[in-house]
Amino acid sequence: MDNAAPTPAVPFPYPGMRRPAWLGAAALAGLVMALCLCLTWQLWEAARREAKRELRTEFETAARAVVNQLALRMAAHVQMLRGVQGLFASSDDVTRQEFTDFVRTQQANVEYPGMKGIGYILALSDARRGAHLAQVRGGGLPDYAISPPGTRPSYAPLMYLEPFTGARLRPLGHDMFSEEPLRLMLEQARDSGQPVMSGKATVARERGRGASDGVLIALPVYIGRKAPDSVEQRRDLLRGWVYAPFVMEDLMTHVGGARAGALALEIYDGNRATPQARMAAGAVPYFGAAPALRTEQRLGIAGRRWTLVISAGAGFGAAQQDQAPQLVLTLGLAVTALLSLLTWMLARSSALAGRALRKSQLLTNQLTAGQRRLAALAESAQRSDAMMRSILDSTFDAILVDNGDRRILASNQRFRALWGVPDELDLTADDAALVAHLLTQLVHAGPLLYSRSLRLEEHEEHRELLRLKDGRFIEQFTRPVRLGHEGARLWSFRDITERKQVEQRERAHRHVLELLAHGAPLQAVLGAVVLGVESTNNGMLCAILLLDDEGRFLYTGAAPSLPCFFNAAVDGLPAAPGYGSCGSAAASGQRVIVENIQTHPDWAAYREIAARAQLASSWSEPIRGASGRVLGTFAIYHHTPHYPSAAHVVLIEQAAQLAGIALEQAQAAQALRVGEERFRSLYDHAPVALWEQDWSAAREAVGRLQACGVDDLGAWLRERPEETQRLASLVRITDVNGAALVHVGACAKEPGTLGLAQNFGSLGAGAFIDALVALTGGALFHECESSFLRIDGVARQHELTLLVMPGHAQSLDFVIASTVDITERKRIDDELQALASTDFLTGLPNRRVFMARLDDQFARLQRSVDECASVLMLDIDHFKRVNDVFGHAVGDAVLRHMAALMRSGQRKIDTLGRVGGEEFAVLLPGTTGPAAQQYAERLRQSVADSPLDGDGREIAITVSIGIATIEAGDAGPDAALIRADKALYQAKAGGRNRVCDHAGASAPNSVDAMAAFTKA
Predict the structure, then answer these.
(1) What is the value of pTM for the model shown?
(2) Residue 52 in 3-state DSSP?
(3) What is the DSSP string of 793-822?
(4) Which residue, 796, 768, 795, 773, is CA-closest to 784?
(5) CA-closest candidate to residue 431, choices 409, 404, 407
(6) Angle between the 15-89 and 318-348 helix axes, to the nearest 10 degrees?
(7) Burial (CB count <10 Å: 0-12, 13-18, 19+), residue 835
(8) Distance linking the first and last C-alpha atoms of the chain
(9) For residue range 517-533, what is the model confidence (pLDDT) as tens digits?
(10) Which of 477, 476, 472 is nearest to 497 (CA)?
């Protein structure tokens, strides 16, 4: 076997012949690969650029969604405040409980994220501060106070505050005017009548979490139900503000929805994005470098501008950005490899057929996997489309999308239901058939056709109100959108019929209130109430029956839509059970619901007349006055059996309440006329002097002065007597009674005879200025004492009381002044005061007054360590001998002579007093030690050198003086007197006619000294 011949080998071509074919195949394959790679790279670059454009479009859409949602959220917050403003506008006195109940019913902590509370700020002048504090403390808040403390021309204390979560933001009573930014914000809201937002502020967060940046929005509340037209009226009628603080971090929560998760949102106060103006930033991932996608948006809210800086995170749209280029790159490389491989296989011919087959199988598997991936992508796209369809169908608004060129792209189920679109109508083709269907339902086709012809720009929005023939109202919004690279138009429709009905009902209520305000007849007012209910509720027939004074019978007040024969039949209906719905309601005081008149026992006697009037059901509500007394009934009828819904119950209660207001207004007008007649009789025959005055012109002049910057009106007028005279000349005395004429000595009501001089005497004095400041500051009552001039020129004094009559507080055109002559009483009071405070013999302060001055001085020593004072006790030597030898008349002359000598050396701050028979005392403030001794020695020497000349005889007088210093450590002011009395006895013991200081004296027994001091 080893020697066998080898198997002949298959001959190979020469290398020289094989190499050119090999090189040609390799060169061709390389060329094809290079071309395919170049094409793949170009396609990959184009895909990358397209992905970036789509990413930018998606980012701008997400950013616009963030801005729109933030704007809508703030608009909802402002609307919430307008609701609270409406609460105050609807009531003259909103209690704290009413405010709390109203805010809680709004569920603001759920519906309005970021709003940390709703509060009410009272507009308060300094003149009304005391009354305000007394009212609030008496209302259950004994610790209530306005903070920070201090006196200011006006205040803005926080009265009500209903927090949603956490602690109170500011304490009740906090004066918002004490913070300059808040004061400016409140004044701007007051003058504009619109909501105003503050700049960046620090807002307290939930308990334990400190504080955060935020803003405050305030909305003014005015007196009355109609907003003032001018700035002056707004300032005069200002009642307060409702306000809400917002925490920026909470406000930005979930803004933009799920697409905004990878967006960075920063909010700056103003038109520039500066670090100082930065208020808050959303919680987003950290950006390692400056974001590639960034935009700045401007947003105007409540009179203030915000700058929103929105940036995209590193992961924003990463999957969408890389998917298409990666797919292009993968397919391009695969195609390149395939073409290169095919070229290579063709070059190698049949020798590489097996290898080419295996590679072909491999490529087939790869293509199969690619098909699976494409199928998965298609399925994902279908799921996304189904999800989008589900979202559209679940929205509250009816949605329609077209391409702007009369071709429908999409719609939701709500659109078909709202417009009653039949199922056979195709909503994915031309819109001609759909528009024709919509036009058949509209009262006016113009708004829809006009909206269809518009070409809206980006961020532009168009609104129309459509009225349907069936009575519904539909609100339409049209805005442009982007669907990929193509533009489209989004139509949204919302049924606002119920809201329009509420508005119509409110207009009817306002009309009734206007009739009441203008004093319209009761019949016209009740007719307006009935027609207002019928106009907003088709199918209702209403009637008002009035109860007579005895409460026994009901009479027709207003029933314009009911037949005359029916009204005549029920006129005089007994107010008792079994006499229809109204009779039973008036008797029981409860609502009576009769669903079917023909079967209800209360209508047994009236079924025939009701059937003739085609009335099938009856609801009756008692009309009550403010005291709860039944005044009548309000009835609602239907032509078919009907049972009321919850909304109907509210309707009939409101209508009965409005009718009750009208009835009480008519009764009040009648009582007012009677009261006016009684007032005139009482006014003319009152024993007290009464003056009817008009201060309106003076009030307007003071308002102009305050507008020019005069804050302290009282001090300003005291420096300008001529201005006081000018303002006094503007006050008119319009009427006086007979007692007033007697009061000033006038004979008759002659024009020009009586003036303010008969009320205030000298008009430059403080009494008129104080009265003017009080009345123009909002006081309704002011009393004072002033002088006045009688017609004969005699000046006297009287007690003056000014009373602003109800309803004239703003104009001051009806002020009643009463005067009582107190000239004689003042004289008697002065005499009694002198008798109670002075010694009748010497004219010096008596013991009681001296002890009071000593108490005051001792209190000052307790407050200040720098204060010092001394007290002197004086006793006339041998005074008993003077009385025994010369008589008591000479003794009295000696006492008066002693008092005159003491006055001659008295300083203005010193206090003299007679504390006993011949005992006197002197209080020397600011004096101690040698200075007190020098004063006492001068006084002793003056007494010794000034004998009394009595009936040609000289009576020598000497005095002994004891001195003591008042010390801050004394138990009381009596301690210094005891020490001075001890020093006095030491002076007497030493020979009399001398001065002794307690500091160097050895006093006698303290019990004897105290007994001697108190012997008077």
Answers:
(1) 0.35
(2) helix
(3) S-EEEEEEEEEEPTT-TTT---EEEEEEE-
(4) 768
(5) 407
(6) 170
(7) exposed
(8) 171
(9) 776 788 888 888 888 88
(10) 472
